[in-house]
Write a structure and sequence with these properties.
Layout lengths: L14 H28 L9 E3 L8 E4 L20 E3 L6 E8 L1 H4 L9 H12 L4 E6 L7 H13 L4 E5 L21 H10 L3 H15 L14 H4 L11 H23 L4 E4 L22 H13 L3 H14 L8 H13 L3 E3 L1 H7 L19 H18 L14 H6 L5 H15 L15 H4 L5 H11 L5 H14 L3 H14 L4 H13 L3 H14 L3 H13 L3 H14 L3 H18 L2 H14 L23 H12 L3 H12 L5 H13 L5 H12 L3 H13 L3 H14 L6 H12 L1
Parallel strand pairs: 4-5, 4-6, 6-7, 7-8
Antiparallel strand pairs: 1-2, 2-3
Helix pairs in contact: 3-13, 4-8, 8-11, 9-10, 15-17, 18-19, 19-20, 20-21, 21-22, 22-23, 23-24, 24-25, 26-27, 27-28, 28-29, 29-30, 30-31, 30-32, 31-32
Length: about 750
Amino acid sequence: MTKQKKVKKQIRLTKPKKVIFSFVLVIVSIFILLIVELVLRMIHYGDDLNLFIDHPWERYEEYKVVNPEVGKKYFNKLRHPLPLHDMFGKEKPENGFRIFVMGSSTVVGFPYEENLAFSKILHQRLQDSYPDKHIKVINTALTAINSYTLLDYIDEILKERPDAILIYAGHNEFYGAFGIGSIEKTNRSRALTFLHLDLLSFRVYQLLRNTINKIHKFLPGNKPEEFVKGTRMKLIVDNKEIAYKSDVYTIGIAAFRSNMESLLAKAAKRNVPVFISEVVSNIRDLPPFGSVATDSYPLASEIFDVAKQFGENGDFNKARENYYLAKDLDGVRFRASEEINEIIHDLAGRYHAALVQMIEYFEQASPNRLIGNTLITEHVHPNIDGYFLMAEAFYHEIVDSKLIGEQVEPIHFKNSDYYKKNWAYTDLDSLIAVHKINSLRSYWPFQPLDNSSSLHYLDTYKPVSKVDSLAFAFVKSPDPDLRGIHTEMARFYQARGDYFKAFKEYHAAIKFTPFYAKDYLEAASCLMHTNDFFLALQFFDQSLQLQKTFFAYYNKSEILFLMEDYAGAIDALNTALELENTPQSREKVLKKMHKIYFYSGDENKMVETLAEIRKTDPGYQPAFPENRKSFAFLIPAQVQDQVDNAYRLYKSGNYDQALTEFLNSLEIKETPLANRCVGDILFSRNNSKAIIYYQRAYPGYKFDVDFLVNLAILYVQNKLEKKARKVLNEIKQLDPGNEKIRPLEKNVRELDK
């Protein structure tokens, strides 16, 4: 018998079976991925990379905040940057107006901390201008991002019902996250980049990315970021020379146009107004970082020298033209070329966005209209004057749009200089910026790339004072605490009796982290030492929104007493006693009540309160001066000498000089006395502006009948019937027998006809 060789028969699947098998394989794979995804979420692996999250702190459950971890979505190789601490209510109030601000490091406020971000300045100006609105300005910016991130943000921003979106962006298109010249790019495809961003919402994909990143770090030649010296500006760059109009340049420009067009289209579809700004650069005082030789264009350095020569010869128009060309030819692309601004102009027109002409604002404020170090700290980031100028540009564009209201009442308007003089920043903030800029300038691209020195600015600088030491330590620290150093400086000044400087430090800390009632209380206490009682009252009220305290209500009562609001002062004391009814606090409250009843003329309450006091302090013998200084004459320290001098001129009949002095003081600090006296002088001259100053003086004189009579007359003259009637009722309540009541009533009735 012969052995037959067994042949294994190959099984072939029919086409329908292949389809079924493939379908089952896909379903099983998806099921496995879902199981892994659920497990990863259960063990809290990965990050919530949404732009907004619920506020994690107690007492803030009704708020959302910009996610501090959102930067991890865009930065894989470098440490992710942090956003500002801006928060907003989950529910939008009926009178709410919500503005979202988009951009990168300039919008963050670099080289300053967030108390000097232009969005903070803009928010305060808008809120003061429209006091009947509840305005929120939410800054979503991150350092070193570009239009890819902005487009990724827009859907989440639109979900939060914005009333307006502000955009200042364009400098980071090549080196920002996913830029064509950045180490943080994924690939050259926009579609794949956005697919990557979408997939990052899955923990499985985050696991895959993190695993690849860890393997990459262990490959030969790769060093972790903490072992590589340099700034983010140095470390983020992959392609260090991108020639003007080259293929790589064209890809970057095209990406900006496509991303911004998609963003504006989404906003337009939802009918959300957008204010988009030109971007500005230091053209005069910063030579090109790199000159790239091409057949089509001259070297950037040569054109920069030509521009300087034109400037020296006094031909500033030609100088400006060549400075801009030199900047555009700069092969190290940290400054946006003017092609970026041309795209901004084009897209603003096509999508009916409001164009903020920032270049014009900066050129007007620059010597010979050449933007340089007078407004810019290095290549693109403004100094303090520059950030106030940015806020000014956006402010006027928003006001002119009439989006929030038809007009800003003159009584509510203050110019940019007034805000700058009274803003929450100190020498500490300025020195932090100095150290940041000096550190930045000690690395490429400000220094040659082959600079082999192992010692840089932060290694060699020696601080020269306490404030300088705190600023320098802040910049060097891997975990800096801005609130901590501002409050430390505040206590330093308090110990030396310099309460105005102490207040400024507390105020700066509050702008950075507005969550601590203690900072508001300390700031208010300092203000009381400087006679700035109106502002102190505001800070006490703000502290009470965070925490009800005996201290706040007790001191609030003192301010209301000085303002002759006796009923309000008693109410504040009663509330204080409800919070802290110890024998000591009760005695303090009763003694203050007794003083209030004395000056208000309430003899029955005065006798009753005195009897209560003597139950625990039988020998108590109060002594109250018959005459006390009027509240209006309690002048804040920073303008006290100026206002006192102006008032002497006023009383001596030198009204012209007094008017000048009072107006100069009002440019520094608003005071009821200065406003009242300016109003009186203008009223006597039948000047229509008198009503503005009277309205501003009103909080300090609302119990002064003579003042109220003049204010009522002005309201009648300006045909403001409701306001005239309100003031007339106040006069009747304060002095029912006043002889001016009857003629005023007649004049008010005539307004109804």
